[in-house]
């Protein structure tokens, strides 16, 4: 590292240098009144204090639409004296978190395509990464917290599940390196997660600490393969997993383990980029360690970036005290700052020849380009993945009166089921009366008419389970037994689809889509109703 580069961080106080390690969460929405998660997202005055005075190194955004997120990113960078890393969990494209941009189906859809046409799947994965990066920088994001390189080799996994690119090391490695290559065409950071592998667990680390029982030889043969490939492909960051792996460290979870981060990741795998923790507010960590303690232990273990510490100021204070008391070497902090500076140099506008104090203050404000968002050619790639990965059987649905039952949990907050959603509208156009059953809040419906069932179910963080609810399975079986099931559409889980497909008559109209978006609904239902003209229309492209 050039000595000319040092003053950029040496002009900061010790506490401000430590604050550069922190990435705090905030709402993508512009105003305090729009904050949806006050336990995680600070109001404007506190957030501005963290950025302007504490000098935190970055933010992670959630919520809002793409246009207001662009304004939000500009606002945040204007508050910052040192440019921010602005991150988002956009594993399924920018539209997954920010309305209006393109949302892709979950990555496991690409694995389904790869089983039939590996070359096509890799090209689509590359386009997936390229489009995600293009839309990210267009609205001011510079850090993509993707791809997931975990192997979903446990179908009961409630937290990874369809977020993974596959169920075996080779498929995951091929598709995730293609995604990284696509994203690398733009000045954004990519992230391989969750190290050293969160696939083979049935426990959600958002809720409690999972245990991985495998020995080192098994980890080398399976879980670590995609990380090795991602590192070889030049991934910028690796995110830790909140996992207990006794074979690697009997005392600490991976996020807090020097053996895992410094030993396995740095020394054995040779990774030289950013190590970022998974969110420190997750219960796998927060339930067992205090907010300052968790941040200190993660940093001491080898993490460069502390994501979503429960109490940013406590985290800064505890690490500062440990350095001042000699428990942590100051040059350990310098090592992380050097990595952070290199990352910011790549994505925040500083030029390689301008390693001077205040250099990036000479740079223009971030450029916003909303014309680069939600382009039809991007939606066409999403449609290609949806169409190529879906499965169906049976004859087209015969037109008759009956019920269109939409079932799932937490449907009351599902943005993809608005009044104009195809899952509601298209069956209504074919004389079916819509009925919505939220299994968390509603009672089991009593059905006396022929019924089309549209079931929204997928593994997701905070669900706690990837399986089906017994009440839904009971109702479906009753409709089958009474010969009242008109057809079945499953959106999300290939595992639930496989279970139910074997129970259905081969003539019964049934279809599976990895996606749950309005685009996914339109593509699936137009197969069920055989409405090819509507399928080709621009209305269902976006």
From TrEMBL:
InterPro entries: Bac_GH3_C, GH, Glyco_hydro_3_N, Glyco_hydro_3_N_sf, NagZ_Beta-hexosaminidase
Catalytic activity as recorded in UniProt: Hydrolysis of terminal non-reducing N-acetyl-D-hexosamine residues in N-acetyl-beta-D-hexosaminides
Record carries keyword Isomerase: no
Transmembrane segments: none
Segments forming domain Glycoside hydrolase family 3 N-terminal: 14-342
Regions annotated as coiled coil: none
Presence of keyword Hydrolase: yes
GO terms classed as biological process: carbohydrate metabolic process; peptidoglycan turnover
Bacterial Glycosyl hydrolase family 3 C-terminal domain: residues covered: 399-530
Enzyme class, spelled out: hydrolase
Keyword terms of this UniProt record: Glycosidase, Hydrolase
Record family assignment: Belongs to the glycosyl hydrolase 3 family.
PANTHER family for the chain: BETA-HEXOSAMINIDASE, BETA-HEXOSAMINIDASE-RELATED
Protein's recorded name: beta-N-acetylhexosaminidase
Organism: Synechococcus elongatus PCC 11801
């Amino acid at each position: 590292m050039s000595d000319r580069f040092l003053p950029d961080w040496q002009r900061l106080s010790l506490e401000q240098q430590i604050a550069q390690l922190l990435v705090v969460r905030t709402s993508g929405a512009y105003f305090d009144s729009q904050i949806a998660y006050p336990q995680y997202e600070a109001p404007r005055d506190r957030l501005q204090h963290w950025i302007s005075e504490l000098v935190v190194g970055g933010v992670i955004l959630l919520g809002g639409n793409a246009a207001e997120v662009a304004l939000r990113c500009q606002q945040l960078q204007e508050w910052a004296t040192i440019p921010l890393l602005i991150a988002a969990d956009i594993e399924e494209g920018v539209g997954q978190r920010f309305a209006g941009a393109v949302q892709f189906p979950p990555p496991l859809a690409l694995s389904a395509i790869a089983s039939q046409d590996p070359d096509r799947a890799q090209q689509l994965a590359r386009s997936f990464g390229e489009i995600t990066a293009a839309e990210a920088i267009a609205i001011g994001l510079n850090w993509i917290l993707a791809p997931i390189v975990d192997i979903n080799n446990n179908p009961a996994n409630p937290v990874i599940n369809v977020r993974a690119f596959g169920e075996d090391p080779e498929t995951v490695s091929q598709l995730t390196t293609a995604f990284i290559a696509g994203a690398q065409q733009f000045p954004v950071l990519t992230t391989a997660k969750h190290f050293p592998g969160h696939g083979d667990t049935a426990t959600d680390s958002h809720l409690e600490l999972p245990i991985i029982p495998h020995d080192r030889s098994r980890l080398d043969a399976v879980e670590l393969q995609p990380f090795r490939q991602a590192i070889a492909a030049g991934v910028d960051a690796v995110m830790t997993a909140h996992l207990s792996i006794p074979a690697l460290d009997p005392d600490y979870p991976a996020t807090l383990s020097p053996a895992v981060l410094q030993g396995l990741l740095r020394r054995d795998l040779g990774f030289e980029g950013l190590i970022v923790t998974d969110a420190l507010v997750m219960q796998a960590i927060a339930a067992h360690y205090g907010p300052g303690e968790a941040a200190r232990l993660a940093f001491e273990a080898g993490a460069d970036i502390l994501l979503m510490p429960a109490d940013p100021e406590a985290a800064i204070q505890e690490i500062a005290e440990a350095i001042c008391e000699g428990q942590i070497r100051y040059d350990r902090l310098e090592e992380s700052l050097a990595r952070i500076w290199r990352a910011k140099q790549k994505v925040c506008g500083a030029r390689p020849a301008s390693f001077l104090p205040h250099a990036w203050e000479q740079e223009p404000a971030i450029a916003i380009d909303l014309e680069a968002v939600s382009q039809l050619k991007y939606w066409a790639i999403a449609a290609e993945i949806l169409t190529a990965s879906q499965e169906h059987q049976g004859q087209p649905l015969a037109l008759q009166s009956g019920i269109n039952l939409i079932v799932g949990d937490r449907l009351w907050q599902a943005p993809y089921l608005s009044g104009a959603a195809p899952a509601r509208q298209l069956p209504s156009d074919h004389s079916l009366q819509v009925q919505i059953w939220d299994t968390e809040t509603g009672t089991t419906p009593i059905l006396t008419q022929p019924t089309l069932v549209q079931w929204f179910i997928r593994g997701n963080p905070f669900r706690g389970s990837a399986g089906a609810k017994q009440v839904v399975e009971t109702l479906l079986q009753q409709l089958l037994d009474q010969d009242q099931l008109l057809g079945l559409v499953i959106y999300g889980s290939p595992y639930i689809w496989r279970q139910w497909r074997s129970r259905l008559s081969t003539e019964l109209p049934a279809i599976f889509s990895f996606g749950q978006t309005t685009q996914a609904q339109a593509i699936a239902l137009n197969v069920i109703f055989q409405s090819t003209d509507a399928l080709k229309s621009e209305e269902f492209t976006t």
